[in-house]
Q: What sequence folds into this?
DNA sequence: GTCTATATGGGGATAGAC
DNA sequence: GTCTATCCCCATATAGAC
């Protein structure tokens, strides 16, 4: 009868799922603790407040995802050097950025990515601040790598391109069911590798082509 | 002392502003009616419920924006025909789709567009349904126009491209302050025409280039 | 660490006078 | 159409026994 996971982890899992389903305001401590098979007071005991719980839900996933991004980027740069080429392709860099996000959506934290997208447009300033902090290093490293991949591009252009890319990514991860609806079932996200390649192709072309004209 | 606008309109204005600032759950009927200089019971009298108020806030802006999109699209197609060309350029079609959205953000309803983006990832299914309904005709007309502009593209590819485009658009309208932050002031949205052209260039290139490879 | 019971506050909605 | 007063519910958080 003893649960396999400690209460703290069960609370995080339940919170993640219910926040994704009902929103941060829509999921109450009552439903979260009930879903986790814990007592109503458990959240306050383990985290201190609901706000702190939200914070932890994000921290638990964002850190590993960004580590994966940086590792993939290192691999891309290393492989480029081994081949004796002086710069990576934009596609390779962009894939390193996008793949961990999409693959997070396919594993354990499928619901979690909804939360990231929602946090981007959240009225709670603490959430936006949290994201900015977590992404700061990633933004710097990938900004530099893209500048290397596209030496003739202005820094300003690269920032804008990354901005559009993040937008397409978030919308893709969160709202593909809406696309499925509008395309009457033609477009689905069952083949996530195919989605990744579509997205990479789109933003890479946008980035290279958008700069010329 | 009599207010220039009827209570109903003042309620809609206040609701739009406060929803944008504090979210749909964060802005209460009490703060909305107070901000509008109306009585607490006014929302229920004029709209029936808070949910119906939200519905009206969206309807008031979405309808004109989508009308503008369709008019611009008609103008593009007409001009194409006058020139004796058999198909419009993807850029022209995409500009007709994107311009009304960005220009809405520059006029009266600057705060409103935050709400659209938030509705996309909202846990309230009624909001998503509302958007789908309002966009149905636009999606069909622009889908056909893009197919005309890019005859060799598969329908599936066009749907995905439009999906990425909407994502980039929403993120741009809502979160450019976040970009300004990350770029340390290099990128701003003060010149909205320039933003539009950047976005058009990006998604047009993504659409044309993403299909080939 | 976990539970019960409760404090405290705010929410949406409505009845009924004006 | 507008106002007051109020109903009723649910939220977060905590105190204190176990």
A:
């Amino acid at each position: 009868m003893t649960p396999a996971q400690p209460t703290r982890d069960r609370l995080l899992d339940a919170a993640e799922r219910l926040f994704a389903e009902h929103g941060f305001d829509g999921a109450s401590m009552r439903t979260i603790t009930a879903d986790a098979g814990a007592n109503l007071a458990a959240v306050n005991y383990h985290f201190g407040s609901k706000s702190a719980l939200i914070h932890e839900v994000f921290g638990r996933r964002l850190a590993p995802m960004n580590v994966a991004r940086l590792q993939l980027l290192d691999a891309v740069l290393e492989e480029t050097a081994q081949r004796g080429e002086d710069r990576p392709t934009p596609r390779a860099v962009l894939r390193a950025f996008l793949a961990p996000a999409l693959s997070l959506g396919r594993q354990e934290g499928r619901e979690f990515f909804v939360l990231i997208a929602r946090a981007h447009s959240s009225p709670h300033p603490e959430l936006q601040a949290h994201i900015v902090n977590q992404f700061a290093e990633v933004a710097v490293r990938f900004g530099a790598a893209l500048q290397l991949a596209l030496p003739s591009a202005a820094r300003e252009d690269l920032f804008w391109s990354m901005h559009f890319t993040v937008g397409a990514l978030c919308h893709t991860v969160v709202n593909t069911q809406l696309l499925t609806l509008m395309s009457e079932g033609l477009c689905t996200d069952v083949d996530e590798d195919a989605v990744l390649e579509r997205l990479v192709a789109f933003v890479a072309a946008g980035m290279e082509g958008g700069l010329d004209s």
Summary: Chain B touches chain A through 60 residues (CB under 8 Å). The radius of gyration of chain B is 19 Å.
